[in-house]
Amino acid sequence: MNCKNVEPLLSLYVGRDLEEEHSRLVAAHLQSCTKCTLAADEYAGASQLLQGYEPPFFSDEIYAGIREQVLNKIERESHVSVRPGIFSQLFLALVQPRMRWVTAALLLAISVTALYLSRNPLRQLPNDQQVAVRTREPNQAGSRADARSENSNASAGSSSFSNKGQVRRATTRSPITRKREANPGVATNRSREVDKTTKVGSSTNDRVVQRVVDVSQPSSATAPLRVEMQTSDRNIRIIWLSGQRPSAGGRDGSKGI
Amino acid sequence: MSLEATIEAHEFTVASEKRLPENVPPQIPRSLARLIERAAAGDMVAFEEIMKHSEKRVIRMTWQMLGNEADARDAAQEVFLRVYKYLGRFKQDQPFFAWVYQITLNVCRDIAKKRRQYDTKFTSLENGGNEAAYVVADNQADAEETLIRVQERELIMRAIATLPERERAAILLRDLEGLTTDEVARIMRSTATTVRSQISSARQKIRVYCGRYLKRREERRSDEL
Fold it and tell me: In this structure, how many other beta carbons lie within 10 angstroms of the beta carbon of residue B180?
């Protein structure tokens, strides 16, 4: 071993922290190197100085005083046994200096979320399920139209559901819907299928009803209204037929199959 | 202590002795293990005994880490409060004093951080050191010797004050408390290699800091010879 290798090991050698093999090599080097021997002596001297780093004499009274204060404090704390609530603990934890970044980040996140929600209010209740309602002409079932709106006829069909508490009416209506309600007797020649999203309450029947409800729209005021509803079981489909459109003022002859 | 309290204490002792496991680990003496169990169950007499067992080590360590008596006493109080608080969590398969040292280091770090005194408020013997604690020499030769010791002490205090916290803790535990490198590593929640490196670095810094004084001392000794 040369001086370059020995120098970093000298402090550990003097403090007997080296492994036996390394210690033997360093000792062999020190026998032949004056410079490293002087350095080792300095380490030994520093170690000797360090041994003199003893605390001043503490009298028994000082120790007794410490013990007494500790015991008194424990006793006082045991009397005050009221634990702070969970919110108090949380608050105390958050106001600690080491948690200040977490607190700041939390407040920032809450502010951003509040700002976002104030600009984009939620339009749907989170627990509600959504059901797509399609209406189509019964005689032209195969045809597809591209018009999309919220259909009052569909809502007329869904009113039979709403009577049973299964479907809520859509609150917003498009201009087309209003026009049709104004002229209920006018049959539209255009075959039309309208996808509509409406909300279903959280009743137990929701599990049975699948998300797609077919509503066959009559082409005229006297034609029967046909509503098909697919359940979660593929083999079971609920079909509602009405003898007369409810909006025509006649008796509702609907029945379930 | 009243008769009822004595009987109660005796019954408590018997009960705790019954609960003590058969094979107490070798790290803890059986008597200390009993005391720990009793103190963890709320026996203040047992806890006071534990304090008496460990107070000298704790005070020494806090003083060496913080450098003045007032902080050392405050730190020692806090150490014992934490020991009492967490005594229930202490596992008897680990050395008790290593656990106490661990708490001591944490408390010293907290206090030093709080008062920000590591480098600025380290007590000098000229400014408020506990001079009464030092032995007053009778004759001139002893007085000279005492003066040299005081100088050396101040020098090493300043040298230790320059060390980073972890290096200071490592060298104090290893060189002054006489713990092994592995024990120091366990207390500091580190590896033996890291601790060895910290100790080596600390010794080098102390040697550099005290180098001039050590050279002068060697010269003086060689002159005397």
Answer: 13
Residue located via tokens 């380490």: A43
- Relative to beta strand A129-136, strand A194-200 is antiparallel
Rounded to a whole number of angstroms, the distance from the CA of B22 to the nearest CA of chain A is: 31
- On whether the CB atoms of residues A228 and A217 are closer than 8 A, the answer is no
The pLDDT > 90 percentage for chain B reads 36
Report which residue type is found at B117. Q
Nearest CA in chain B to A8: B200
Three-state secondary structure string covering chain A? CCHHHHHHHHHHHHCCCCCHHHHHHHHHHHHHCHHHHHHHHHHHHHHHHHHCCCCCCCCHHHHHHHHHHHHHHHHHHHHCCCCCCHHHHHHHHHCCHHHHHHHHHHHHHHHHHHHHHHHCCCCCCCCCEEEEEEEECCCCCCCCCCCCCCCHHHHHHHHHHHHCCCECCCCCCCHHHHHHHHCCCCCCCCCCCEEEEEEECCCHHHHCEEEEEEEECCCCCCCCEEEEEEECCCCCEEEEEECCCHHHCCCCCCEEC
The token duo for A247 is 């909006």
Minimal C-alpha gap between A105 and chain B (Å): 24
Question: CB contact, 8 Å: A45 with chain B?
Answer: yes
By Cβ distance, the residue of A50, A66, A70 closest to B175 is A50
Q: Residue A233 burial by CB count (10 A; 0-12/13-18/19+): exposed, middle or buried?
A: exposed
- pLDDT, tens only, B196-224: 999 999 999 999 988 888 777 777 777 77
| Interatomic CA distance for residues B72 and B66, integer angstroms | 6
pTM, 2 dp: 0.54
Beta carbons within 8 Å of A62's beta carbon, 6+ residues apart: B73
* Beta-bridge mates of residue A238: A229
